Amino acid sequence: MKQKFSIEGMSCDHCVARIEKAVNELPGIQKVNVHLKRKNGVVKFDDTQVDSNQIVGKISDTGYTAKPM
């Protein structure tokens, strides 16, 4: 499954790397692309192992606000 998320609170490439690293730690994540200027990210994942709420929670745990688009 592929899901786009709006992400608020990012200010630099370090923020992008931090979010991508955190989301990649979840089981079933296949690809993560976070875009600083667009304030969003696209995550490809196996929905039998992880869901959108878990991804939002992981992003929130890193200090950013996210919601599915």
From TrEMBL:
It comes from the Bacteria. This is Copper chaperone CopZ. Keywords: Copper, Metal-binding. Residues 1-67 form the HMA domain. One of its GO terms (molecular function) is copper ion binding. One of its GO terms (biological process) is copper ion transport. Pfam families: HMA. It comes from Tetragenococcus osmophilus. CDD domains: HMA. Signal peptide: none annotated. Coiled coil: none annotated.
